[in-house]
Amino acid sequence: MKIITCIKQVPASSNVQVDPKTGVLIRDGNNVKMNPFDLFALETAFEIKNLSKNTTIHSITMGPPSATSVLYEALYMGSDEATLISDRRFAGADVLATSYTLSQLVTHINNFDLIICGKQTTDGDTAQVGPEMAEFLNIPHVPYVKEIVEVKEKSIIIRSAYDNYDELVEVFYPCLITVDKDANVPRLPSYRRKVQLRDYKIQMISLKDLKDQDPDHYGLNGSPTQVDEIFPPEKRTEAILVEGNSKKISNEMFKILKESRFL
After folding, report:
1. What is the rounded radius of gyration, in angstroms, for the C-alpha atoms of the chain?
2. In the chain, at which end, N or C, are there fewer CB atoms within 10 A of the end residue's CB?
3. Which CATH number does the domain housing residue 36 bear?
């Protein structure tokens, strides 16, 4: 089986800067980490590899050259191959353009049975990249996976968790799944693998390597959604003291909340 895992480098804290002209995050490679949901996706791939013979795991990401750090982390955890797709013309991509770029990379790799993504990213929280990739690739997809039930030769049986119920699904290859948090316990990178892979060179892919080389389909040019305005929330420190019996206090609290448009 050939598994592709999609991972992403995200800010390690909420203290990030935004480009005032484009409204997108400034990613300089400092104070970053692997998207937490992607750790569960990787561990799911490793679990499947333990259940299925002759399985290889290929981790991919889109981002600046510094994003190779999360790919090396994936390799040290257990991935067999890693590829970075990077090009200045990909900068500023929204969810749709990002999904299309990654689907083009998968098409370039052109050898997979299963794509595994984390449910969402902590810097976007849309949970749309995985499903949109599947639509571009014209393959079935299942979200919110919390358990791998059985790995078959031509299909996989998985359990997905929704708000009020679980669903058991069998989906045939090639397909895509997105993995929710707490699906497993991600392993730590292995120092032994780090030593073994010290000479490994991550493959670099750019726009010129893709089947679709039209720059208008990528980055800001290929993004139908644009940030109209972004600003830090206003911080207020003033306090209001309400005194009286319970009825008076509740009435005053209701009035304050209504005037502040919380109700």
Report:
1. 22
2. C
3. 3.40.50.620
